[in-house]
Amino acid sequence: MTLRLDFANEQEEVTLPEGLERRLEELLALAGEMESIETGDVSVTIVDDEAIRELNLQYRKLDKPTDVLSFSMWESAGEETPIVYGDESEDDDAEDGETVELPDEPIGDIVISAATAKRQSEEYGHSLERELGFLFVHGFLHLIGYDHEDEAAERVMTEKQEQVLQRAGLSR
């Protein structure tokens, strides 16, 4: 099993960089390697400002668009992962001796506003690809428990984001 990205573009306003899905898969692999996470499913959905505003209002009570939202499945699990012993089968259709590959556990969902990412890339003077990559890595780090509630935590998160982006050739 590996880290797997599910990608969806649900907006038409902004033309996304060619090869964006492959780039996000690369960033996921690099961030997963850095954090010793080898398996799991991450979904990323690219939306417009209105869609992310609605989600921001629903989940954070903020009636305005934002750049990225993360919805971790790890935080909401609330219970230990069950142990499956070797003699138990998740799939009764499997024949004796046949290996059954179970689906990866979901890590969570990342939602990115393409319009906000485009504005921010212009503001910061770098490419849209770099901004989308930054927002994706930022969202992934939130999924696995990182936050930026205080200066020390923000420094750690920023360093990790920059390490992944530099390794992918997306430095500022």
Summarize the structure.
By secondary structure, the chain is α/β, with parallel strands linked by helices. It contains six helices and four strands, in the order E-H-E-H-E-H-E-H-H-H. It has a four-stranded mixed sheet with strand order 1-2-4-3, sandwiched between helices.
Explain how this protein is built.
With 172 residues, the chain is α/β, with parallel strands linked by helices. The chain contains 6 helices and 4 strands. Helices cover 44% and strands 16% of the residues. The chain has a 4-stranded mixed beta sheet with strand order 1-2-4-3, sandwiched between helices. The longest helix has 17 residues. It is globular and about 35 Å long.
The main sheet orders its strands as: 1-2-4-3
Q: Beta-sheet strand percentage?
A: 15-25%
**Fraction of residues in helix:** 40-55%
* Order of helix and strand elements from N to C terminus: EHEHEHEHHH
Radius of gyration over C-alpha positions, nearest whole angstrom: 18 Å
Which segments are poorly predicted (pLDDT under 50) over 5 or more consecutive residues? 76-102
> What characterizes the major β-sheet?
4 strands, mixed
- Pairing-aware structural class of the strands and helices? alpha/beta
Q: How many strands appear in the DSSP assignment?
A: 4
Shape by Cα distribution: globular
| Helix count, DSSP H or I runs of 4 or more residues | 6
Mean pLDDT: 86
